[in-house]
Structure formats: structure tokens, C-alpha cells
Amino acid sequence: MIILGIESSCDETAAAILEGPAHFDSQNPSELKLLSNVVVSQIDIFKAYGGVIPEVAARSHLEAIMPVIHQAFQDADFPPDDWSKIDAIAVTHTPGLLGSLLVGTLTARTLAILHQKPLYAVHHLKSHIYANWLEQSSLPTFPLLALVISGGHTQIIYMREHNHFEIIGTTHDDAVGESFDKTAKILGLPYPGGPAVSKAAIGQVQLAETNETITLSQPGDPNAYHFPHPQAGELDFSFSGLKTAFLRTVQKICNVPISHPSADLKNLLNPQQIADLSASFEQTAVDILLEKLQKALELHPDAQSLVFAGGVSANQKLRSAAIAHFSQPGPLSQPVFFPAPRFSGDNGAMVAIAAYFEAQSQVQPTDPYSLNIMPRSVIR
Ligand code: KG4
Ligand code: ZN
Question: Which residues are registered as beta bridge partners of 2?
């Protein structure tokens, strides 16, 4: 079965072509073949604004979507406009930015009708989880616990089997990716904040205003500052309190009152302070995520795998801390899975593979004439 996956929920326009066997054999993951994977990111546009502007994102998707799909055909060595090889189309229809989702979804609907292909409507968080089945030498086994950590979501999901999702923890306010992005803004680091904070934490401070990177002689100290771990429900998160605590700490370091405009604070910090604050923030975020995941594992001891998903799963500190934490001998020792780095951010391959496993589970394709987008929705 060959699936074209289309993704445009935020600021990446992406398409990929995936081939999988008619009947999946979990012992033989190499039978899943990614024939192409094209991602056009709008990051360079939004760097100038320090964040995504939804209307601009939608317009950029509109310009990029057909060229990206054509490129995916070309990279797969498929003749242009030869749709005979494609068995199904999959698209992200929820959740995400309204205008962005519309572009991908309307394109997919039109192509499905025009070329008479089944259309799979895929939930974005499901795709992020299924990115862990792409180009892996061994695969997660069920039941599993997935920690979904992106710019819009922070959730712990229990999966009894394929296509079964039970949200057992969620954030009460900000997502963890959003808190990285806000931290970066306060520190004067560029958008997107996650990679910039990580880089600053190892002593590579890139200033958004000048785009200059200052290399320090030593990395940031993760113990330089201490931030509270917010008290939410047992498996829930709250990152807005961390953001406020971070802001108060920076105000204190800069010796300014709390009424001081946060946009000006970056001018009062030196590069070593930026590195120390980045490292301390990153350490706190990693500790909070792993603490909650450990709690989830204690409450669901039948889990066989721990799966990380979403943009924040690219974080190197999180990766090494998770592997160290969950590989210690004992009852909480569990195999840990991360998407290959190129699949941790938004891409079309994860949409195609999520649809592939829907097809394997006999989930019926959707009606291309009536498929709607939903800016918000829970995973299902
Ligand atoms: O999954 P994603 O690409 O888009 C959404 O579905 O939201 O996630 C984007 C988020 C952004 O908040 C970005 O700052 C964060 O992922 N991110 C990171 C890293 N790379 C991306 N956060 C921490 N460390 C990283 N290395
Ligand atoms: Zn995403």
C-alpha cells in the first residue's frame, strides 16, 4: 500500500510517500519504506516576527503545497502527475491553525476526488506518536505510554493497542514547547525557542536581534537557578507558572521591578547569564516531564514502552536524561523510543504512517466531499 501524506497544520508545508506491506509484520519494520519526505519550513519568515502569524502561514502553505507534493513524487521517482501508484491520500485535518489546516485539507480532498483515492483524515498528535514507527530498528510494543510534547500540546497518552488513545495527563495551561518559545523571547533568542534555548544552554548564544552567535568558553550551568515544579494533578502539567517564575528570576537578576517591560530584559543580560538561565530552564522542563512520565509508569505498570512525540522530543538533554532515567535496573526500567530527529518536527511521513496503521486496523477512510477541519480536538 502506497500512501501520500500531507501536513500543513502549523508552519511547515510537507508531503511524503510511504510504502508498507499489505499486512504489517512488527518483526520486520524494514518493510515500511519511506520513498520521499519533503518539508518546506516557514521558520525563516517567522524569525523576523518572533512567532507564527496565522494569515501569513496560510498564504505560504497555499504557495508551497502543490510544489511540495510534486517534489515528493519526484523524490520517489514517480512520474509527475502519475497517480496510478498512489493507493491512498492522508492529511492532517485537526488540530492546528485554521487557515493552515484548510490549505492541506482542501488540497487533499480535491486530489482524492480528482484521482479517486481513499482519503484518511489524521489527527496531528496521532501522527507525532506514529513518527516512532518510521525508520526504527525496533518498534514500540503495546500497551505503551506516549508523552506528546509539542508547541500546542503536553499530554500523556496510554495506548492499549494501535489506534486506541486514552489521555491520562494533560496541561492545564501552556504547552511545554510554548514555554520554551516564551523563555527564548524573554532571553532575546530567536524563534523557534526550543532549539535556541538548547543551543544557549551549551554555550552557543544566538541573539535574535543581530543573528550573531556568541560562543562561550563554558556551557550554561543547569543548577545556576532553581525554578519551582508546578503542582497540577498527579499526571497533569502546568507550564504557565514556570514561565512566571522564570520571568521573576530574570527581573531579579536584572535588578528591575516587576513592572519592567519583559521585552527589554534581554538588553540587561550578559551572554553567560543567558546561557545559565537557558540551561536551568531546560533542566527544569526536562525534570518535570520525566517526573510525570515516571508517575504515569507507576500507575500503569503494564506499559511495555515509553514513546516520546512532538517537536520538543528533539531536545537532546531530554533524550539523554530519559534514556539514563528509564534504563536504571528496577521495576521502572523501560525501553524508551524517540522519533528519528528528522521526524520529531512536523512532516508528511508521520501523517502517512499514521494513516497506514489506521488502514491496518480497518479504520474506514473519510468522505472527501464533507471532511472538515477542526482547529481544536482531542486525539482519537
Ligand atoms: O511538533 P511541533 O513541530 O509543532 C507543533 O505541533 O506544535 O513542535 C514545535 C515546538 C516548538 O515550541 C519548538 O520550540 C519546540 O517544539 N522544539 C523544541 C526543540 N525543537 C523544537 N523544544 C525543545 N528543544 C528542542 N530541541
Ligand atoms: Zn506538530
Answer: 19
CB 376 within 8 A of CB 95: yes
Contact (Cβ atoms closer than 8 angstroms) between residue 349 and residue 37: yes
Would the pLDDT of 341 be above 90?
yes
Report the distance separating Cα 220 and Cα 199, nearest Å. Answer: 10
- The size of the chain, in residues, is 380
Q: Which atom of ligand 1 is nearest to the CA of 285?
A: 23
DSSP state of 216: P
> What pTM does this model have?
0.97
Distance 340 CA to ligand 1 centre (A): 14
Cell 508552519 locates to: 11
Neighbouring residues of 44: CB distance < 8 A, sequence distance ≥ 6: none
Q: How far apart are CA 42 and CA 45, in angstroms?
A: 5
| DSSP single-letter state for residue 316 | H
Nearest alpha carbon, ligand 1 atom 8: 311
pLDDT in tens, 32-57: 999 999 999 999 999 989 999 999 99
